[in-house]
Design a protein that fits this description.
Oligomer: homodimer
Low-confidence stretches of chain A: 1-10
Radius of gyration of chain A: 25 Å
CATH class of the largest domain in chain A: Alpha Beta
Strand content of chain A: 15-25%
Number of strands of chain A: 19
Number of domains of chain A: 3
CATH architecture of the largest domain in chain A: 3-Layer(aba) Sandwich
Helix content of chain A: 40-55%
CATH topology of the largest domain in chain A: Pyrimidine Nucleoside Phosphorylase, Chain A, domain 2
CATH superfamily of the largest domain in chain A: Nucleoside phosphorylase/phosphoribosyltransferase catalytic domain
Shape of chain A: globular
Largest sheet of chain A: 6 strands, mixed, barrel
């Protein structure tokens, strides 16, 4: 045989072409079926290909092209492949077969019911962060861990692995406090209130938040209506050093890059996984340097957690995983029977936040009270106030304007405060009959807000006028849909008209 | 608000462009991020989009394009999207949001540990066959059913569902016999021998086989070296009516289209699923009209089934599922400790088959004996011979040339017999020391054959010279690698040189 090797540069080389195709986190390359390398290497559609350029290596999924999209000596790169290789026009890349990933055998073992060790979990999460898993592999890992298939030890291992592969902030003070509200409750936007209250009292709270995964708005989406949130770690540190706190998007900070990738695949699967949820939440807290975290667990028939028993089990596991990774975790069950505040959607929720901070007369009191209770709990947990007196301090900081003043300082430090946009198209949904509001379906309300365009269209969503218990007359407004385009408004209304009422009225009460 | 509806044709229309990108079974569409529909509908990367053209509807995954690949009013279609829509240049398609698939809630229920009912399984399999599942969804379904997570009732439900969504053959005679060898044993190519033997005795055997999934050759790949195998149902029926049997690729016959789609995703996952394996095998038998099936279960430390206990459990489940769906199933455990015959790879295995049929002096006797035993069992199961005398009839049909004559007739009916190709590049692996062959690793041997190019390069693979127990001298050839290109040969050799010996020699025995 001759001396040809698998990495023979003279043969296995193609010129890059940026195709401008956004394949998210999964690097994809495009090659002609009749290109010499496809033929000599036996590559076929969905092959995993090792692509090398100036010492950078990525594993990409191959899409075969049969038309004239590419020349015979060209390879098309998706946006993420282009970025990871730091490619430039006319660059030549070298191609070879990707070795099977060792860590996939651990995923398979988990699928077959075995427990994952810390080293196994670490190898999986490292490969995910290195973008070596295809969507198919990510989906299998998520499914294998879904429901309650990760025990506390495995969840702690996953959390540690997620921390290990990301950036890590450390601070020269203590305690570093934090909070997290478990999702599923529309409008539950306490973070932009809790941070300025807590920071105004002199505590440090470097808060990272997520964008919406399956909800009409994440805290980062809402906060973005008021100030820039896509800050990297360096910028975030500057803000915290100047003001004592921040409210930024965690994805830009790269505190848990593996989790950011997993979330992209969890979304279309819509699977709940207790272990992954705990790891996702707590890994970001530890990576942000937090020492004390209060978890807000809303409980209600259409919230993410539906019973106090389930909330208790989840809360207990969170505290245990916290202990295993050296994080103080305190869990609070809260009312999850209806949305918090009035707005659902980034801009509409931001307006509620502003109303509370500015002490406007019609500010939503339920949102304000939740923020007060959570901030109070943080004060007590961190030893800043005696037990039982945290909420009073929080209330005082809101009432005298110090929280509002601090919020403006944080927004300025993040790049400048701004006003939320207003939607161009609205439609009022009214009561079909007189009576009392007896239930509100959080999930379907959230879905209507999403169909109206939230969170991609930031002004979209809805505004709820009648909380639980409100007495209404026939034709009285229940909620108002907001959309940026007529098409999106039409989608939301088509959905609402095809459903039983989301805000349920009991007659004669 | 205006009268715009979600299906407003004036607005939600784009002109198709065939991009020539092969995305396998998953329809993908490409749209510019700044195209009016993306913006008005809030579509983003990975959105599931309903695409309609002249009454045909598909659900496609959206890839966002940022460059100049497409015009603003164009939508790019992947090959499978183009084909499913039966699109032509300049056609306009209508776009809207795809409703969430109802059947995915059953997949989620299975992930959380619930059992799948027959209607739930049917809805899932129907949506898969209709290509409504993305790769991410398919991966979740496969993972949720992996290992032993499907019980016999669910496996029977999956089998029935797979049968229901595919083509179905019926014959005006009975019995219709069939066989299946469970994979994992290189070179176990008994089908092209069993079919002509059984058919030469007057039985009917319309055999459909698969291409390689994770092995260096499937029976269809091997048979394709000798005759065309990509016959549709009509052509297959013609062959069987003329000759009494056939050996064709099942994929072209569309007997179990959902299974064909699942297999494409199972391959990169490399997950074993007993339930899916049974459903995959038995659904195709029933769809082909079979009434009596012999299952060959090779057992060995590096075969797919590793212990007689595991084989017994699997065999019992196969018989039970057979009973549930009205199919006679008989299971035989066979020796899986080493490859069968000499060749591994499509052309090399085809040579072994020809040698046995032509009664050549050096024909591999182990392959011949296996075919004889399996054919004998079919004779007995179908009541064609008394118990204990099936093998003798099979042997007689091989010895007097009737099987060879029948094989030629089948090949002619399938489109004409041909000779297998010969690889241009070979390399002999020799014994590092004298001794006796004490073990052969089927899995790594298969992997070496695949790295050499099998099955995409049909002449590639390897030829084993020294079965278990052979006494060898130092430097005596153990096996010969075959490849069509120097690059593929280099891959295989790089792998072999980095491994402990695949053919293990014990010294001094």
């Amino acid at each position: 045989m001759n001396n040809h090797t698998p990495h023979d540069h003279a043969v296995n080389v193609l010129q890059v072409r940026r195709l401008g195709i956004d394949t998210y986190h999964e690097p994809v390359v495009f090659m002609r079926s009749d290109c010499p390398i496809c033929r000599s290497e036996g590559f076929e559609a969905h092959s995993r290909v090792l692509v090398s350029l100036r010492g950078k290596n990525i594993i990409a999924t191959l899409n075969i092209v049969t038309g004239d999209l590419l020349q015979n000596d060209e390879i098309g790169l998706s946006e993420i492949a282009w970025k990871l290789l730091a490619a430039a026009p006319d660059d030549d890349v070298t191609l070879s077969h990707a070795e099977p990933l060792e860590s996939l055998s651990s995923v398979r073992a988990k699928v077959y019911g075995q427990r994952l060790s810390q080293p196994a979990m670490h190898a999986i999460v490292q490969d995910i962060a290195d973008r070596k898993y295809s969507d198919i592999h990510l989906s299998a890992f998520i499914t294998a861990c879904a429901g309650d298939r990760l025990d506390v030890t495995e969840t702690a291992a996953l959390t540690r692995a997620m921390i290990a592969v990301g950036e890590h902030l450390s601070w020269d003070r203590s305690p570093i406090v934090d909070k997290h509200s478990v999702g599923g409750l529309p409008g539950n936007r306490t973070t932009p209130l809790v941070v300025p209250i807590v920071v105004a009292a002199g505590l440090t709270m470097p808060k990272t938040s997520s964008r919406a995964i399956t909800s009409p708005a994440g805290t980062a989406d809402t906060m973005e209506m008021l100030a820039p949130v896509a800050l990297d770690v360096k910028a975030m540190r500057r803000v915290v050093e100047r003001t004592g706190g921040c409210i930024v998007w965690g994805g830009a900070a790269q505190l848990s890059p593996a989790d950011d990738i997993l979330i992209r695949v969890e979304r279309p699967l819509d699977l709940d996984s207790e272990g992954q949820m705990i790891a996702s939440i707590l890994s970001k807290k530890v990576a942000a340097g937090s020492t004390h975290v209060v978890i807000d667990l809303p409980v209600g028939p259409t919230a993410k957690v539906r019973s106090t028993a389930a909330a208790h089990a989840l809360g207990t596991d969170m505290v245990k995983v916290g202990q295993a990774i050296g994080l103080h975790v305190d869990v609070m069950q809260t009312d999850g029977s209806q949305p918090v505040g009035r707005g659902v959607g980034p801009a509409l929720e931001a307006r509620d936040v502003l109303a509370v901070l500015r002490r406007e007369a019609d500010a939503p009191q339920d949102l304000r009270e939740r923020a007060v209770v959570l901030a109070g709990r943080i004060f007590e947990m961190a030893g800043h106030t005696p037990p039982g007196s945290g909420a009073a301090l929080a209330r005082a900081l809101l009432d005298d304007g110090r929280a509002w003043h601090k919020f403006q300082a944080i927004c300025d430090a993040q790049g400048g405060m701004r006003e939320p946009p207003q939607a161009a198209h609205t439609h009022v949904m009214t009561a079909p009959s007189a009576g009392r509001v007896v239930s509100i379906d959080n999930r379907r309300l959230g879905r209507a807000a999403k169909l109206a365009g939230a969170p991609q269209s930031p002004a979209a969503g809805l505004s709820l006028h009648t909380p639980l218990g409100t007495r209404v007359e026939r034709d009285q407004p229940l909620f108002t849909m907001h959309a940026e385009t007529p098409g999106e408004l039409a989608y939301a209304l088509a959905y609402l008209h095809g459903q039983p009422p989301i805000v349920e009225i009991a007659n004669g009460q």
